[in-house]
Amino acid sequence: MTGNVVAVSSNGAYSFTKPNRPGIRLLAGLGVEGDVHAGATVKHRSRVRQDPSQPNLRQVHLMHAELFEELAAAGFPVEPGQLGENVTTRGVDLLALPVGALLHLGAEAVVEVTGLRNPCAQIDDFRPGLLKQVVHRTDDGTLVRRAGIMGVVRSGGEIRPGDAVSVTLPPAPHRPLDRV
């Protein structure tokens, strides 16, 4: 499975959206250099309130550009970075990856997939009704989350739009993604 980086985004302040950048640097064990969510321990406000010492399994947020096309067709135009992701990709089925998959981004960076993003009500503040587009239940009641995946940085490096993305799967049996 291979693809490419469409956009990279970061923000040093808490904000729902993250501006696009010409490049970002991933730091091993920390996340995106200069991003508010970088760190070895949790940085997302709700997680900090629960237990600020827990490990940060949400150092990097990745989303697939194909989702933006689906959302636009449903009347919800969204651009890279607007949903708070750090890396927007194309050509890799991020949501189908198992826990522990390694994403090789650019020449050096490696992100280990930890789970699914669990979007909150802030997404409806950005675009009313958008939450139901990225989180819904199937006919049998299964909850489906489509707002990207989260990971931790195993090897640092620069990432820029146009960089290659490749995947190394962990040994079987594979564990499906769940929210982190």
From TrEMBL:
* Listed InterPro entries: MoCF_Sase_C, MOSC_domain, Pyrv_Knase-like_insert_dom_sf
Residues of the signal sequence? Answer: none
Task: Extract the Pfam families matched here.
Answer: MOSC (PF03473)
Give all residue intervals belonging to the MOSC domain: 19-168
Tell me the PANTHER family matching this sequence.
METAL-SULFUR CLUSTER BIOSYNTHESIS PROTEINS YUAD-RELATED, MOSC DOMAIN-CONTAINING PROTEIN
Q: What is this protein called?
A: MOSC domain-containing protein
Q: Organism, per UniProt?
A: Kitasatospora phosalacinea
